[in-house]
Amino acid sequence: MQAHQARDLDTAERLYGEVLELRAAQPDALHYLGVLMHQRDRSDEAVRLIQTALKITPKHPDAHNNLGNIHKECGRLAEAEVCYRRALECGPSHYNALSNLAFVLEVQERPDEAFETYTQLLREAPTFAHGQYMMGLFLRNFAQNVEHIEQSIECFREAYRLDARNVRALEGLGVSLYTLGRHDEAREVYRDWLQREPNNPIPRHMLAATGGADIPPRADEAYVRNVFDGFADSFDEQLLKNLDYRAPEVLAGALGGVLPAADGSLDVLDAGCGTGLCAPLLRARARTLVGVDLSGGMIEKARARGGYDELVVAELTAYLQAHPAAYDVVISADTLIYFGDLAPVLEAAHGALRPGGWLTFTLEVLEGEGDRYELSSSGRYQHTRDHTQAVVEAAGFEHITIGMDMLRKEHGKIVSGWVVLARRGGNDMR
């Protein structure tokens, strides 16, 4: 277990195996080896091991909770809920199981039950910082009135007071304050945070996003890397809370209307591949499928998901510039929303495509006319349709189409995006 906690998985797996050679039915070894197997993306084996442990010790709340976590992270929410409820039957004060149960109820869009469970969690474990943070997010995501946003502010403040390492609580606090129009207070949160951590790119970027500093032409690399490495560590929650995330499917659908049959003949770049959600949608068309992302944590998730011939940790514009005429297709789902000035990256994408190649990407919608982009309080850029059309044309593309579609839900609201499809001139694409 010490090796496991130190993330030395090879040693831990070997030692768990030695325990089980000595005593085949040792329940703790079965349980924790199951957890390890899931960490190695062998989740079916993990489930079998923990279920075997529970036949021996059926009232072990930690084992029920960890089995629920595996089901949750595999998207099996009903099975996860059953496991968390069994954990609570065995250990009514098991606050991790209570927190996890509240989360899966929320994701299953059962907000009344989720609220009751979060309330019970904070009543039984008021000093559980993560519980305060989760309640803050829930109140903001499902807010029905101003009071709910105000309550989220108190939860975020308490979460940070209880655990000063939880900087996401500060980010949540700033967003809630800004949502209520308390812009000066939001900026003060980020200024104080930046004063305490002058080298932290998150408060520096968010201060600009709330109007407290000059808007950069694109998000700082360190900010993007920091944010998405953090997302990778909690990927299950980020994915589950965005079950309506549609950008990969929308872009794949746009390409389906212009590409030849899925005969595995194209060289495809997934630009900003994240955890690899585009891979299964592109694999049948690709002779080679390459994913590039600034976040090493996200690349590791994409590697575990599989489907790519190559995965690269790199800054996108520089990578495109270093690979002239290398691709038939470049697809970028919710990556260019971290670029305000799109000209450099689109010019690089044009150069990385072969004649006749296709580029498709998403942006967040900035309402209104005119050639404009803005940095929103979410930390992401939004672009007008006029600006998008102009900058894609200026990069040298033709056959440009720009449609609007729902990309995801956030804070309980639909996020609309531009879905852009454009072609590099020429006829040499396979």
TrEMBL record:
InterPro entries for this protein: Methyltransf_11, SAM-dependent_MTases_sf, TMTC_O-mannosyl-trnsfr, TPR-4, TPR-like_helical_dom_sf, TPR_rpt
Keyword annotations: TPR repeat
PROSITE patterns in alphabetical order: TPR
SUPFAM superfamilies hit by this protein: S-adenosyl-L-methionine-dependent methyltransferases (SSF53335), TPR-like (SSF48452)
Protein origin, superkingdom: Bacteria
Domain Methyltransferase type: start-end pairs: 269-360
Entry-linked Gene3D superfamilies: Tetratricopeptide repeat domain, Vaccinia Virus protein VP39
TPR repeat windows: 27-60, 61-94, 167-200
Name of the featured protein: Tetratricopeptide repeat protein
Lineage: Bacteria, Pseudomonadati, Pseudomonadota, Gammaproteobacteria, Lysobacterales
